[in-house]
Specification:
alpha+beta; Alpha-Beta Plaits; 3 helices; 26% helix; globular
């Protein structure tokens, strides 16, 4: 297991809004003790930033590629995230569901 801390930014496309996707992501992030946030985008995608041990972050990215049973992921784009992106969550919050952007 790798303890190296990484940050990933992901955008998920498909049937990912109105199907509990944000709650799915939040639940899995909290289970993995990750920092970050998730939000719907007005263009129909879901966007998230995750920070923590590489194994845990990579695990949640894989989970996002599957999503909840009620959804359907067509594509998942990922890249390295930044501390600035991570700071979009409220002060003192570990993981947050942000308003739609």
């Amino acid at each position: 297991m790798s303890d190296e801390r990484i940050i990933k930014h992901v955008v998920i496309r498909g049937r990912v809004q109105g199907v509990g996707f944000r709650a799915f992501v939040e639940h899995h992030a909290i289970q993995r003790n990750l920092d970050g946030w998730v939000r719907n985008r007005r263009n129909g995608t879901v966007e998230a930033v995750f920070a923590g041990p590489a194994d845990s972050v990579n695990g949640i990215v894989r989970a996002c590629g599957v999503g909840p049973l009620s959804g359907h992921v067509q594509a998942l784009d990922q890249r390295d995230g930044t501390e600035a992106e991570l700071s979009a969550r409220g002060s003192g919050e570990k993981f947050a569901c942000l308003p739609t952007l």
